Amino acid sequence: MSGNNLLQTLHQFFISEQSRVKVEKFILYLALLSFAVHLILIFLVKLNFTEFLSESELLKNPISAIYTPFSFILIYEVYLLIFYLPKSFTNYVTKQYEIITLIIVRRLFKDLAALEITSDWFKIKEDLFFTYDLIASLVLFFLIFLFQKYGKQKFEQEVDFTEKIQRFIQRKKTIAVFLVPLFLIMATYTLINWAAGISVAKSELPSFETINNLFFDHFFTVLILVDVLLLLFSFFYTDQFHKIIRNSGFIISTILIRISFGVTGLINTALIVTAVLFGLLIIIIHNKFEKNIKASETKV
Description:
300 residues, 9 helices
């Protein structure tokens, strides 16, 4: 089997439309099952049928059970990010922003279960963090809407679908094909490592923040490397300044998201919002460049 045929076979197996539908159904069933299991564990603890992990915050309130299926939804979003990589660079970046927004929303569900409704709302650290995340999720939702709007802007010009661009698409397909098993291995390792950290003797469950640090910080580290590769590959088919700056700006945005995993509280939220806002400004300015170039070509 030739290299191209092997690539096409792997692409069909990992990131074809048929594979996406199968992965979507599998993740949906897994999310529903995990939600049911989490709820059962919570009620077993409440009815004193078991004391195992009874001190965990995630087993004290049924609202916390939403956290578990959300984790599987995030895994599906990771898959969709890889799925869109060869198809659309803008959709690929959008998925990065959607993933980090869903991480904040998932955190909201966890914090919602432990909220203290008192007159001292702005004096309780946990309630303040919840407020920051609540506002940030709305801001990010709006910023992603704008990013998609400007990212889908089309300009009336012929697309030069040259052999160089075809090779660039093939390179993106190759990267995507390797990313699927890589992230599957990373996710499996994270789950095993987290499960091994459960203290049977103390009936303690490791913090779910640890899962973020074990997977999503490494996940965004890999994305930074992928973005750098895409930037380098793009030099083979374009030397336009505004496109180079756009791709470089997206790398900076991803790095800011990666840095956010190393901090907590307001700084964490501020870094994430800044990352998405920076990406939005980059795409808006890039589109202005495109319009000016098109206007110049029309005059000539």
